[in-house]
Amino acid sequence: MGEGVRPSYDELAALVAAQAVELARAREEITALRAEVAALKRRLGTNSGRVMPTV
Predict the structure, then answer these.
(1) Considering the chain, what percentage of its residues have pLDDT values greater than 90?
(2) Low-confidence winner among 2-6, 9-13, 23-27, 38-42 (lowest mean pLDDT)
(3) pLDDT bucket at 46, cuts 50 / 70 / 90
(4) Please, are residues 1 and 7 in contact by the beta-carbon 8 Å criterion?
(5) Running DSSP on this structure, what letter comes out for residue 7?
(6) Is 50 left (phi over 0), alpha (psi -120 to 50) or beta?
(7) This model's pTM is above 0.90
(8) Under a CB-based contact definition with an 8 Å cutoff, are residues 30 and 20 in contact?
(9) What is the distance of C-alpha 9 from the center of its chain?
(10) What single DSSP character describes residue 12?
């Protein structure tokens, strides 16, 4: 798509589909990272009373 050229319906549909795939991938990664953070918090809670500073 050049500057000043309007995208076709098919180009826009392809862009929306690609963004939907990327959004789904990002949501999966967020879910995995939240689980990892929860696991690390549990480990920290069982770690001999050491307190980590918050940033």
Answers:
(1) 75
(2) 2-6
(3) confident
(4) yes
(5) P
(6) beta
(7) no
(8) no
(9) 28
(10) H
CA 26/CA 42 separation, integer angstroms: 24
Residue at 48: amino acid letter: S
> What is the identity of the amino acid at 54?
T
CA dihedral 13, 18, 19, 20 (to 10 degrees): 90
Q: Quote the CA–CA distance of 55 and 44 in Å, as a whole number.
A: 15
HEC string of the chain? CCCCCCCCHHHHHHHHHHHHHHHHHHHHHHHHHHHHHHHHHHHHHCCCCCCCCCC
Q: What is the pLDDT of residue 2?
A: 62
